[in-house]
């Protein structure tokens, strides 16, 4: 049985998607247009419809993660990192190269953990520029696994620091959702910025189960 908050947001998202679907369908029937400027306007409107649908999904998932954190079996950290990097890389083009490095560990985490890590990788990558590489590394800590995501050779984020997800624009609810998913599993997330305020690094600690070799 979903909580009242989850039930309400599910209803809101359902009602939002109806006009979004109608608007997107109508726009698709208009094109293609011979006028390039008019077609570009149609394309922008279609992307905005897609963005609204994505935001609605993120809002629903965020509330579900906060209200009803699910249990999960152990997951392979290398497989988790690889899937998250692939998902983040598919989000936009061009995308900087992603380096993955760490031992064969497993950790308990929410089923949405892949999406959460993908959002964090994408957030770090947004500040990257050639020849920057997004480095994702992991190792064991006292009660689980530490995952460090950083631009190039920048220092890791202090695990005891804050994660100001609301100040990182452009990713909708993805970063608050990532934080909610990680914290629902008794984990933590912290960020580090450079002097210009660009995101340099994110450190995730996944807790709730000791890291074990695969």
Q: Could you name the key traits of this structure?
A:
214 residues, alpha+beta, Heat Shock Protein 90, 2 domains, 3-stranded antiparallel sheet, 5 helices, 8 strands, 20% strand
Secondary-structure blueprint:
Layout: H1 4-30, H2 36-67, E1 74-76, H3 77-89, E2 98-101, E3 105-108, H4 113-125, E4 134-141, E5 144-151, H5 174-184, E6 188-193, E7 199-206, E8 212-213
Parallel strand pairs: 2-4
Antiparallel strand pairs: 1-3, 3-8, 4-5, 5-7, 6-7
Helix pairs in contact: 1-2, 2-5, 3-4, 4-5
Protein architecture, described:
This protein has 214 residues and is an alpha+beta fold. The protein has 2 domains: 4-67; 74-213, Histidine kinase-like ATPase, C-terminal domain (Heat Shock Protein 90, 2-Layer Sandwich), CATH 3.30.565.10. 45% of the residues lie in helices and 20% in strands. The chain has 5 helices and 8 strands. It has helices spanning 4-30, 36-67, 77-89, 113-125, 174-184; strands at residues 74-76, 98-101, 105-108, 134-141, 144-151, 188-193, 199-206, 212-213. Strands 2-4-5-7-6 form a 5-stranded mixed β-sheet, covered by helices on one side. A 3-stranded antiparallel β-sheet has the order 1-3-8. The longest helix has 32 residues, at 36-67. The chain is globular, with a radius of gyration of 19 Å. The two termini are 35 Å apart. The mean pLDDT is 83.
